[in-house]
């Protein structure tokens, strides 16, 4: 029997990048997977169709993480389609980098709405349905511990606040035997942070392994945390960054 054969997973932001890799991994390991997208409708529908063709059970849900009602509805739709929710992966995220003086209140509101508020809203909506053994896994960033350089204030602030969220919620949900953890990737080759750029060369110079990570690297860790083997890990931050923060 596959590892997640009787499990339902919701991944936010599964249309591209790390979220798409996490979606693929859970499908390969037997789970029913609902995933959200915002702008990338074609990519989301193509991913879902490909996975379903090869025997997977997926649905792609249009849900803007910046809109709380969209997030709640995505949880409700997952439960309606698959009969429950066992694992929530809060992956959707955005990066806004610019000189501090140029940040606007709109930038602040947008990044906090997507990177932080949506995580809070999705978790609260999912917990209503989550059984013992449930998992809440959020994708933070190694920048939660290490602001890499200038122009990162907003993003770093948003990812650090996920640490407080993870600590608190792990204690709130411990009695329900639901674990809550934060995965903190370093540079991963996606649209958000493509390898082969000038910035990438700078980032590589700071890493012990001097190579970009892949979505699959992150999906492997998420899968481990979500499995039975991860049952004693909660309130933890797992940094997976090729030694960037070493
Ligand atoms: P990408 O930009 O490649 O993909 C982002 C994904 O999030 C897309 O599927 C996108 O969907 C979705 N998304 C963005 N905004 C929204 C929104 N408002 N509502 C719903 N979905 C949304 O990013 P990555 O895959 O690189 O990043 C995934 C996560 O990993 C993020 O939380 C990011 O902060 C984190 N991370 C990434 C690192 C990296 O180096 N790549 C390093 C550390 C952390 P759509 O296209 O449909 O709008």
From TrEMBL:
Keywords: Oxidoreductase. It comes from the Bacteria. GO terms for molecular function: oxidoreductase activity. Belongs to the short-chain dehydrogenases/reductases (SDR) family. This is 3-oxoacyl-[acyl-carrier protein] reductase.
